[in-house]
TrEMBL record:
<protein>
    <submittedName>
        <fullName>Nucleoside diphosphate kinase regulator</fullName>
    </submittedName>
</protein>
<dbReference type="GO" id="GO:0016301">
    <property type="term" value="F:kinase activity"/>
</dbReference>
<feature type="domain" description="Transcription elongation factor GreA/GreB C-terminal">
    <location>
        <begin position="53"/>
        <end position="128"/>
    </location>
</feature>
<dbReference type="Pfam" id="PF01272">
    <property type="entry name" value="GreA_GreB"/>
</dbReference>
<dbReference type="InterPro" id="IPR001437">
    <property type="entry name" value="Tscrpt_elong_fac_GreA/B_C"/>
</dbReference>
<dbReference type="Pfam" id="PF14760">
    <property type="entry name" value="Rnk_N"/>
</dbReference>
<feature type="domain" description="Regulator of nucleoside diphosphate kinase N-terminal">
    <location>
        <begin position="7"/>
        <end position="45"/>
    </location>
</feature>
<keyword id="KW-0418">Kinase</keyword>
<dbReference type="InterPro" id="IPR029462">
    <property type="entry name" value="Rnk_N"/>
</dbReference>
<dbReference type="InterPro" id="IPR023459">
    <property type="entry name" value="Tscrpt_elong_fac_GreA/B_fam"/>
</dbReference>
<keyword id="KW-0808">Transferase</keyword>
<dbReference type="InterPro" id="IPR036953">
    <property type="entry name" value="GreA/GreB_C_sf"/>
</dbReference>
Amino acid sequence: MAKTSRPPVIIASETLDRLERLAEAAMARNPELADRLLTELARARTLPQARMPEDAAGIGSAVTFRDESTGREQTVVLAWPEDADIAAGRASVLTPIGVALIGLRTGARFTWDTRAGETRELTVLAVDPAAPASPAA
């Protein structure tokens, strides 16, 4: 199966440091996921929050995506780990889907490895921006 190239990633500069610190802190617990997040951050284009495109997924954004193999659509809100609640649809940026979605824009198509080890192709259908997330903590 040919690997599809990763779509461009755009991250708000105000959240970049915190995302990097989270990934580094997670290195001992989940090195593969932490490394994947650091790789995405390293290749990301960073912009000040005020210049971020409205359809770029950031912390607090509601992201609707479709699993191309099943046709199933799902919406999650990207959250900091302490604010995550999967039952409420808030996915931590430190989960496989959080790492996959952060920084993507509407229309992006990408491969994603599930926790069960399956590779799926997902398409971002919509990004609903939220109020600016605070970079604190």
